[in-house]
Backbone:
């Protein structure tokens, strides 16, 4: 679960990009990350330290050679704390982070749809609506996470033909107060 410090760390688009790169491509140094992201090594080193301080990345000391430091993403629960556990300023930060992530997700989906090639059938999706209680929605969310763990693989254990697949699930009451479910 995210702490306020972790939320502040994720507020940086470059830090989110570093995490995504590590998740997709595996361990890297600040130099390889700098080249991949068009940054200087001082910048990527700084952001790696910030991500390390908040538990998002870890240094792979067994791969170090001289001053070269290798980093990898730390797997873990990345959910936001319940809103009622956050201060007003933390709630504002969580909202901004959510808005930033949603915009990032929409850009990625749009880029995939625009540049789709013969692998276009990799995109799967569904839109649905139904009536649930808050307790049922929470149970549904936990079952969704179980499915992700059941069908997904860690990068190092994935089959050779596996690709990083971005899964985004969100459930919320219809702010328009719809009266009938649709499928």
Residues:
């Amino acid at each position: 679960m995210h702490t306020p410090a972790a939320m502040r760390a994720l507020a940086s688009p470059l830090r989110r990009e570093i995490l995504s790169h590590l998740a997709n491509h595996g361990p890297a140094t600040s130099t390889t990350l700098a080249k991949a992201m068009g940054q200087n090594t001082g910048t990527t080193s700084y952001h790696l330290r910030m991500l390390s301080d908040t538990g998002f990345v870890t240094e792979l000391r067994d791969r170090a050679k001289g001053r070269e430091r290798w980093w990898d993403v730390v797997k873990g629960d990345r959910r936001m704390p319940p809103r009622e556990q956050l201060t007003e300023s933390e709630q504002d930060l969580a909202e901004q982070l959510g808005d930033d992530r949603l915009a990032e997700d929409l850009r990625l989906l749009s880029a995939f749809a625009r540049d789709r090639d013969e692998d276009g059938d990799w995109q799967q999706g569904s839109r649905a609506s139904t009536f649930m209680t808050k307790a049922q929605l929470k149970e549904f969310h936990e079952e969704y996470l179980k499915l992700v763990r059941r069908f997904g693989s860690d990068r190092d254990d994935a089959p050779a033909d596996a690709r990083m697949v971005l899964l985004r699930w969100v459930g919320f009451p219809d702010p328009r107060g719809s009266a009938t479910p649709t499928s």
